[in-house]
Amino acid sequence: MSELMHSRLEFKMPSPYTLALPRGLKHDREWPLVMCLHGMGGHHDLMRRWMGPLLSHPWIFCFPRGPLPFEQRLPDKRRIGYAWYVFDGDQEALRESMQLSIEHLHNIQDLVRKQYPVGRTAIIGFSQGGYLAPVVAGNAPGRFCAAASICGRIKHEFLPSGGGARLAQFSGGRDGSIAPELASAGAHGAREKGYTVNEHLDPEAGHEVTPLILEQLRAWLQEVLE
User: Fold this and answer.
1) Which of 14, 82, 151, 216 could form a disulfide with 200, with the two C-beta atoms 3.0–4.6 Å apart?
2) Gap between the Cα atoms of 177 and 130, Å rounded
């Protein structure tokens, strides 16, 4: 019988990101940074379009693309979507998968900091990105002052106790993917660990970013960044 030898080699892939810079940006002051994570199967340009009404604020916006590509088969075509982590029900494997993207996002944040004078930093995410964003901020309060989950759930199980970052949950009352009750339970779990969590609801929204959610998000970002 043959002897099996197991080894490992890192495989690198390009992982683009887009910056939206405020008009009149100068290097004589610090500028708030907002990192925006798309949902599973999405991409960074889609998230940038959704956040369009907020781009007039004097903040630097960073739109990274998820590092994990996968094929999506639709009725009339195929397309490549992107993800932040993989999940098969194994919580420890999920934690490890999330950690890879967390390190990737730290690297992007460091690059932006080298280019521009960055001050307070928030990270927000939609759907799958909404699961990841609070985990990113909660485990690195020195890097992020706040995180928001939009149509996701605050993964309080992966948050350390102490509440070092402000958190927010934005939910749709008609969300068929993440029920508002499930999202609210995640917010409650984070509060039990010492986090300040704001909850916001658009009762008519499904699994989507609506104008009302954007206005709620705008007000919250102004509160935590300015």
Assistant:
1) 216
2) 12
pLDDT band at 74 (very low <50, low <70, confident <90, very high): confident
3-state secondary structure (DSSP) of residue 198: strand
DSSP secondary structure code for residue 156 in this structure: G
Mind listing the pLDDT tens digit for each residue in 75-89? 888 999 999 999 999
Per DSSP bridges, beta strands 166-172 and 146-150 are: parallel
Question: Is the full-model pTM beyond 0.85?
Answer: yes
Look up tokens 């699994």; give the residue: 207
* Interatomic CA distance for residues 108 and 64, integer angstroms: 8
Phi first, then psi, for residue 12 (nearest 5°) are: -100, 140
Contact 18, 47 (CB under 8 A): no
Q: Show the domains of the chain with their CATH numbers.
A: 17-225 (3.40.50.1820)
Q: How far apart are CA 93 and CA 85, in angstroms?
A: 10
